[in-house]
Structure formats: structure tokens, C-alpha cells
Amino acid sequence: MKPIRTATDSVQPKAIPTLYELSVRGRCGIDLPAPDVPEAALPASELAADCDLPELSQLDVVRHYLALSQRNFGVDTGFYPLGSCTMKYNPKINEQIARLSGFAESHPLQDAESVQGNLALMFSLQEWLAEIGGFVGVALQPAAGAHGEFTGLLMMRAYHHDRGDAGRIRILIPDSAHGTNPASTTMAGFTAVELPSDTRGNIDLDAVRNACDATVAGIMMTNPNTLGLFEEHIGEVVRLVHACGGLVYGDGANMNALAGIARPGDLGFDVMHFNLHKTFATPHGGGGPGAGPVGVSARLADFLPGPVINIERGEHGLRYVPTTPKKSIGRVSPFFGNFGMFVRAYAYIRRHGADGLRANSEHAVLNANYLRVKLRDTFHVPFDRINMHEFVCQGAVQGTGIRALDVSKRLLDYGFHPPTNYFPLIVPEALMIEPTETESKQTLDTFVAAMHAIAAEAQSDPALVKGAPHNTPVRRLDEVKAARQLLLADRAEAAGG
Amino acid sequence: MTYLPHTQSERAEMLAFIGVDRTERLFDDVPEPVRFPKLKLPPPASEIEIEREMQALAGANFSAGAEARFLGAGVYHHYRPATVDYVLQRGELYTAYTPYQPEVSQGILQALFEYQSIICRLTAMEVSNAGHYDGATALAEAVLLAFNAADGKRNKILLSPAVHPQYRAVVKTYLRGTRAAVVTGDEDGGATLDHLTSQLDDSTAALVIQNPNFFGQFESVDGLANKVHSTGALLIVVVDPIALGLFRPPGAYGADIAVADGQCLGVAPSFGGPHLGIFATRMAHVRRLSGHIVGETVDLDGHRGYVLTLATREQHIRRAKATSNICTNSTVCALAAATYLATMGRKGLRQVAELCFRNSHYAAAKIAALKGFAVNPHAPQAPFFKELVVRSPQPVAEVNHRLREEFGIIGGYDLGRDYPHLRQHMLIAVTELNPRAAIDHLVETLEQIAK
Q1: B3: Cβ–Cβ under 8 A, 6 or more apart, which residues?
Q2: How many domains does chain A have?
Q3: CB pair distance less than 8 Å for B60 and A116
């Protein structure tokens, strides 16, 4: 494998004009029917002076976005081992299904009788997620993982308040947690308390024990944690938190290791969000839309956001109805949440069944362990034991000045998306690698070869690695300039037509 | 099996390399009593079977022809040019993650930068984020921004009852976590804007209106911003992006924050989601804005490029001190909106808005002439756009049932569900997809039902 070394080897244009730069006054990409009803007097006081939208032909629009897509890397482009993000294959049939007009054109405010197909689908998905997670209730409404966290924390808050226990204001969070955990905690009106990890990568049990008191509303646990390790003392952590009156929140971001392997509800979790865009393969969309349904144990079921879908036996047989739980925290989204994602997740679970989901988790874990053992002699793995669906190694190459960032950027030249870097925060120079189950052994081996090659380059030609990437549409970008000289919107004016 | 590539021999080879004799051994850390549960799920099915099952589910919903849908209330059937789905199906874009590696994410980053640029010009605001989940959550975050902008010294939000009922519900849920928040003004569903402004005081963080409001009517916004600003509060306006093709943008009448749902811009109704939250404000608030923001910069060779910027607001850097917890948002829908607006352009969006205006006024005049019906009875003089309030001689549920079952028409939204004083009132949406013949058919049908 010989990646292109210098920018001059590439003939790609260095910048693509923006929509406004392409714009010519008077051009239009669409025509609309002439009005066939009488004219109505426009309210003069409400009229706009102008509406400055770009003006392009349809072909201009198509070429523009095609050119942009060619400057982007997705799972469909190549290997994307971005830790904690579960960048697995997004089945194409699910995209087709979500576009069926019976789903896509249905309106959320139609009468329930006229959308029984949608409600049946949502009801089944609630049931299946409850079964997979070991929960008694599921609400599909949250729009993303972080939104699910916020929802779960508001439920925990409502639960304590409902019991007259409003003094519980602290949420315990391990130092390896995703940034969304403390951010959601603040939004829900709690104080985040960070707890250290132990030498084996688990949450420090003594720290949990010392922190547990009557001010603890709960703990947020990611299991497997962001080191990719199954928490060895999870049973004891749950017991300690419950014993002091707290609840256990599960960050379901890493559920791709556990579907069919263990149910968080069986481990004692009271509430967890699922990331449908991770475990259940709905596309990440370059940053959404996702979906973050929450599952709960019996004591939180009454607090779920509403509406949830229930089943009623009526005169004409079964009927699905949206209902709001008794002590619901209210709506966290308008309507029913990201229904289009529910369609895809439903199809995905149906494709796999119980055995298929377990096989996915097993292969995700197999692939991650294979990579760990392949790479550990070159890139130090600080917690070197059997991991789950991801693991963390250190990207710095000793004695060369090459850092995790440089290795990541050089991987781009080899045609790979880099792992998550500099996270979790507790490992210096972290590279967090999650291959997922849909990658073949050949892909993993090619990635390993690239990592080894980069380690060798770090010794033989460190400047090459420091200067990477070399064959991407742009080279390293000046992020400091972007933040200091804020340019957040295009100032170009359309050319006169 | 399914989407797994390994052959049996590859699996064996990999296990041997790791040093375990069978797959199960990889899970020894999982407590034995809960390991490998027998999940009660339906058996797996092939793609052919799945397609059949999903078609049956989709078919179990009632579908009306594109011309015969008159239900809006925040989710609209507008024409979606084919360019939009063409762009959305590019695998390089929709199978990517959030663009944290800018060198291989210039496509999404530039598209989002252009999206921000278009939203700024459409709303006449100075800065837009790269999108939020939907209009309601964008409004909730705008309200949180107003609280934070006042450093917690102002604890009151004045919320117009003519803001979408579900948006108001989401705002109230979001405020459960803030000790300071008091939402007021929407207790009386019929409260007017004057009634709201009379409650402005130095404890007010923001006044929230929707314009055109939930009932499709324009609010009297002249001088409103001055009144709000004179007490030190912010003016937050929920808008309909389609209306901005023709009518004045919130920036032109002094709004501090403009939010909207962008579903109408090329995104399918899809039973209410995923949609797009539009969130724009003045530069003074840029560091309090939630969500991703894309900025222009240069690379090592001085070539133009784009990056996520102001990340110090965000959860992955600031953790407990972040302005919001938002991470994954609604990039694909922002991409749809940008493609839609680029295809429509200045002329196209104006034409869509004109068609909505004319068609809805035609429908209003025809329905108002029907015996037993009244149109916009509570504000007959207010200019309106796209939506009209129709008082019906029969309960709305009954009318809608007959429209659907006997005539294949999807009727309007039952306003009595949210506004007790509006029982027997429905909100009817008319867009460019409802031509004269379809409106005439609706009117004849309503007449027949009323007999």
C-alpha cells in the first residue's frame, strides 16, 4: 500500500464554490404550477423586502452536492472504527422501507384509527427494546442519546420528588464517562460528581462507597465502559447505589456489546437509553437524526414521557392507542419522536431475531479483541484484558514525537477513518477503537497493516506523519483561526443575472 | 448470517489468535446468572419477508391522495423536489458520523456552513447553529438561552398560548431541571398579545410568540421588540420558514432568537419525525448557542476549509458546564432543507408561499360561505397564511371521520384537544399541493356532511 505523499499528487480542486458563489440573479431550479384560484390581497405591512436565497439551476444543485459528497467519508466509503459510535453497516433495505409512502407521508396528528400500522410498529418496538434491555417499560420519544439521558434524569428527579425526597441533588459519574453524562446532569438540575477509575479500568468501588449518601439521586454508568471493559463490580455498584436510595442510569451507547449477551435491567439498572443509530443500525446521518428511546424498571414506569403506545381490546379487536403514563414528566419531543428511525430499527430487529442480535454482539467483541491483540505490541494498551466491543490503546509512538492525533491523520491517507482520539480522558493519547461486527477479517488486517506502517514511518520519516494527511481534499485545518475570527455564514453576493 | 462477513474458519482463526477456545469465553466478565438471556423476540426473517411485513404495516395506515390532505398544525405536506432525496441518499453523507475529522468531512461541513448561511438570510438573523432535533426542542433550548443570558436573575418566561401546544409542552418539560423557571401567559388559551406584553417586567427573561401563530394568523409585531427590550427581556419568535419566502423575517422586527421546524423544507412528515430544529440568533448570543456550529477557516496550504467551531460550548469539551448536552442532532434534515432551499431559490420559495397564501384564502372564502361554518371567527380581520380556523356545526372528530371514511380526505386538526374554548373548531392547512379542484371537493364534502 502506497498512500499518495504530497498534495500535488492530487488533481482534486482545493475549494468548491459555495451555493451563494454559484448563485446568479434570476436563475431558478424549479417551476411551480400557475395559481388556479383568484388572487388574494397580500397584507402589505407583513411583506418582506426580499428573501435572499441562492439561485441555481437544478443541474448546478445536483453537481454541487455530488461534489460535496465526494469530499466526505462514511461507512459506505470505508472502515470507520470510531470508538463508542458503533459505525456499522446501515442496511439499504431499511432506507427503502422508511420511504414507503404509508410511513413517510403519514401525519402525526391523524386520528389513531387511521394510523394503526404506525402505532402497531411502535408498540412492537417498545416491547422488543424492553425485552432486549430487561425493562418493564419503554418510551420511544427522545430524539438522540443525550436527549434520552436528559429524559432519564428528569424521570429520576420526578421519582425522588414524588417520594418527598427532594434533597437528592447529586449524580455520580465515573471519570471515563461520555461528556453528555455531566452535561445532561446539569440540564436536569443536578450536580455532577466525578468518580475515579481503578487500576483495572473499573469505576473505583471505594469511591462509590464513600460517595453514597442521602444526597445521591443516582449514578450514571456506561457498561461496558468507554475503555471497552465490562465493569467487573457492576453488581456491587448497583447494590451500593440502591442501598443509599439512589437510582442507576445506564448510558446505552455501548449496547452493541450486550444485545443478547446481558440485559441491563437484569443487572439492576433502573433506566437506560438505547441509541438506535448505534446498536440498531439506523444511519448516523453525519450527525443525526438518531433516536434515544428509554427503558425503565417498574419504579420509573409511571414517569415515562408521553405518549407511549398501549394496546386495547375493543369491539373490533385489538386497537393501539397513545396514552400518557400517570406521573409522566411530559413531552420531551413533539409528536412521537423520530418515527422514521423506529421503522428502520424495527426492520433491523426483525431481520436478526434473538440469535442474530447475539451473534452481532459476539462478532463485534471478537473483532475488537482481534484488533487489540494485533495492535498491542505496537501501540500500548493500558488495560490489556479481554475487552468488549471496543478497546483503548495509546497512539503516541515512543521517542518520535508522534502523537495520537498524527497517527489518526495519517490513517486518513491510508483510506481509513481514524478511531476516536483523546477520549476517554483518563488515558493519555487515547485511541478508542470500535470495529463493529460488519467488518471482515481482511479489512481488519489491512487496518492493522496500516497502523504498523504508520508506526514504522514515525521512526523513519516523522515529518511525513506530522504533516498528514496528504491526500485528502484539504490538509490540517486551522481550528484556532476558525474560533478566533468567527466566520459562521457566507458573505458572498449572487452574481447579477 | 445477516450482515456478518466472517466464515467459520476465519472465526476459529481469530479466536485462536486472541487465545480463547470459543466465543463464549469473551464474556467471562459478565455475571454468570444474567449471561446469555433467552430473548423472546420474533424469529429472524429474510429481506423479502421483511419487505412484505413492512408494506403491510405501512398499508395499515390510511393514505389519502397528495391533494386531499388538509392537516397541518406544525407538520406540512409541501412539494419535495427530487433533488432533495437524491442528495440524502448519498452514502458518503448519510453513513458518516458527526464531522469531527474535518479533512474527510468537508462535504458535510460545507453543506452545514451553507445551511447556516441560508438560514441567516432567510430569518434575517446573524448566526445559525447547524440544526437542532426539531422546532419544539429548539424553542426549549432558546428559552434556556434566555435564562442563561440573564445570569439566572430573571426567572419568568412569557409564553403565548398561540404557540404550538406541543412546543409549549416540551418547553415546560425542559424547564423542570431549572430551579428558576416560571412559565406564564398561556393559562388562558384565548389570551392576546396585549395581555402578554402587559405582564412584561424586570423578572421576565423572554417573551415567546409564534408568527404566523399556531392558528395561521399574523401577530401585531410592530413595536413589540421595543416593548420587550425596554424591560431587558429577549424576544423569541417561532416562524414558518415557508412564510419567509414572502413575509417579513423575524430579524426585521427585532427578534433576538428565531426558531422553527424545518420539516416543511423538503423533509417528509414521517409521522412527526425526524424533523429539523432551526435555531438562529444575534452574534451577541453566539457563545450561549446550543448545538454544532460550522466555521470557515484555512488549511496548512491556505486553502479554504470548514470545521466545527466554538466547541468550548459543547459537552465533549465542557462536560457539566456545557451550554447544552446536545450531540447527535438532525444533520440529514438540515441537508434536506439546504438542498430544498437551493433548488427553490428566491423565486421558487416565493411562489410556494404565494400559492399557499392564495389557496388558503380561496378555501377560507368558500368555507365561510357554507351554512353553519365560520372561518377565523375569533380574529376575522387578522391576516393569515396557510392555516385557517374553521368552526364546524358538528364535532370535529365526527367530521374528520366522515371525510376520511366516505371521501378519502384527511381533515383538519381538532383544536378542542388543546383549547377548551375552541371545541368544534378545526385548523385546516392548505398548501401548494391542494389545487382548486381539491379545495372545491373539500368544500362540497363539508357542505354535504353538515346537512
Answers
A1: A88, A89, A91, A437, A438
A2: 1
A3: yes
